[in-house]
């Protein structure tokens, strides 16, 4: 078998066999297939695409390239949640404790920030002492004892994806549905859960800018899950505005805690409750409607808040962060207001630019080696549809001595559009794919 023949076959629109896909992926991971041939293979997929069977095979081959986590020793149906990445997306910090408090085990591996989107692991690490690197024994033991553990991805989880993604990033082949779906779902398969709730973001702050693109990706991921005998549902959610009000690590932890106390922003609370309900439904705790009622009760009763406290304590963090978050979390006292330059309704927000602006302040990273400043970020004071007067603050920037405030303010000024007419309200949940 030759790489040349496989590249030619896909370039001409042919359907690849399992053996051919294995030959390309495994050969590249082992260093037997050079970058230039793998780049040509990826470009052929980019233009010719893959059918559902090819996607399922590619996902499995990538998942098998490294460690597979076996969660069978943990009782119950294990449901994982994945977000395709957004601005202000701290849902895991709320959804995980809700679901765990309802008896659904949460054994979750999460990622770090890169680009304009934040990372769950960075947010948790803003809590003093919180450990996101646990031994496999500790990870399993915590889930058995308190029903939840959230850790960073292991070094040898899906090495094929790490290597292929780096090449895709350098060869303009990132934004192809089969490659995106197999990248995400290979990590999900390797994680060992029985089912997945996929939060697929749509809009200016998401990788998928249109509902049509997001639906195609959602259908591809759900199809891959089902092809491997896993339960799955995808929730299409609005990312034309930052989720909630806070963007930045400590700020987002603060907002998550407020939400667990029943004082969170309406859009963020609604999304968390719906994602939790779908996770419980896939775990066979009842109908979606019954599970939604259970999730609301877990939030209102304080059960979910106490589960978050346990999560923090069991992973080495200071549990008093629940009671005194503004004292415990690293936060700056230096702020700058972003001021409206005209009267009118906010009719559009370029949410990706909000995420990039927070990075200019120090809340994110351009490369994996960059250091994050947990103290900084942006508080959104006015959202889509709100009326604002000239001279009124639209956002508050939390800054440090290293923040590039000028660049952040310039981006914010480019992000907002105003009109005399109030825009039509867009719900947080745009659709469901099952």
TrEMBL record:
Q: What is its EC number?
A: 2.4.2.2, 2.4.2.4
Domain (Pyrimidine nucleoside phosphorylase C-terminal) spans: 345-419
Q: Which GO terms describe its biological process?
A: pyrimidine nucleobase metabolic process; pyrimidine nucleoside metabolic process
Cellular-component GO terms for this entry: cytosol
Q: Which UniProt keywords apply?
A: Glycosyltransferase, Transferase
Q: Which InterPro entries match?
A: Glycosyl_Trfase_fam3, Glycosyl_Trfase_fam3_N_dom, Glycosyl_Trfase_fam3_N_dom_sf, Nuc_phospho_transferase, PYNP-like_C_sf, PYNP_C, Pyrmidine_PPas_bac/euk, Pyrmidine_PPase_CS
Q: Which GO terms describe its molecular function?
A: 1,4-alpha-oligoglucan phosphorylase activity; thymidine phosphorylase activity
Q: Read off the PROSITE patterns from this record.
A: THYMID_PHOSPHORYLASE
- Give the matching SMART domains: PYNP_C
Q: What class of enzyme is it?
A: transferase
Q: How does it assemble?
A: Homodimer.
Q: Describe the family membership recorded for this protein in Swiss-Prot or TrEMBL.
A: Belongs to the thymidine/pyrimidine-nucleoside phosphorylase family.
The name of this protein is Pyrimidine-nucleoside phosphorylase
